[in-house]
Design brief:
Strand order of the largest sheet: 1-8-2-3-7-4-6-5-9-10-11
Bound molecules: threonylcarbamoyladenylate, magnesium ion
Structural class: alpha/beta
Distance between the termini: 31 Å
Strand content: 15-25%
Helix content: 25-40%
Number of strands: 15
Radius of gyration: 19 Å
Amino acid sequence: MIGTDIDLAARLLKAGQLVAIPTETVYGLAGNAFDTTAVLRIFEVKNRPHFNPLIVHTWSMEKITTIAADFPSVLQDIASKYWPGPLTVLLPKAETIDDLITAGSNYVAVRIPDNSMSLELLSKLDFPLCAPSANPFGYISPTTALHVEAQLGDRIGYILDGGPCRVGVESTIIRLNENDEIEILRNGAIGSQDIEKITGRAPVMNTISQDPLAPGMLKNHYAPSIKLLLAQNNAELLDLIEKFKDSRIAVLSFDTVLTHDAIVDQIVLSETGDCDIAARHLFSAMHKLDAGNADIILAVRVPDKGIGRAINDRLMRASLKEV
Ligand code: TXA
Ligand code: MG
């Protein structure tokens, strides 16, 4: 059921049930982080492998001590600037956090999301919420309550509807690595320049790992059920369209409308070439094109700066899925 009843959502969560919650990035599939049965149920409903750890969500900096054993000051500086917001920080876990949540790691991912309904909900609970994106494992993340209902509606009690997500791609994940460098584990709306501005140190990028404990990111993810191929630029996109002209083609374009007889469906992410707008539309566009009558989605990279990097990262991972 979809609705806007925060008290009902709180009651269900207190009773150990799962509720989908809105955040500024994507919708989350939330359960009581201090209730092992609820946490297990999250993995089950998403069909998510247990080696892929969960982000713990809370609503105030003071609550971090109930989740993490330590909060290095440089990470605190960054978090206090961007929380509530699209940032997740890896911290040494507190005893309260079950190994199941961290997939055996001593580090827990923590985030304060920027959505007034979810912040109110969290403040009514005396436990934090584990919340991965509310999609079946490996599939496109949801940015509306309807996306959640279509994918998981029959498996969860309630979907708290906060409207379409403002940012549209998942949070930036950072940690301090073994060399005491700030490392970005997943690109999101907060880019390396935003972090450098606060710390005076340029963060390093973690290269894609097949081992999610090393940590966090699987290579092929965020993928539609039909094949998606990614072009470097519009010229290459046109070549791809020509190459696949015997298929029914859906085009996921950045700022230009393309014309070809084989194109049966097309979405332009931002006619003005604005990456923030493109990010907001990205997953919705992938959902729509996947549900249409095309055989293949041909997409193009966007400018590789700021949130554009996060978009390219998601497109690249979607393109790696074997269909
Ligand atoms: O924006 C977001 O972060 C959304 C909303 C709902 O908050 N959540 C989200 O969760 O994207 P999920 O589970 O789809 O992605 C979490 C990522 C995964 O790649 C996971 O491996 C990584 O964070 N992660 C979580 N806990 C970790 C840990 N303890 N160590 C390393 N990576 C971790
Ligand atoms: Mg996810």
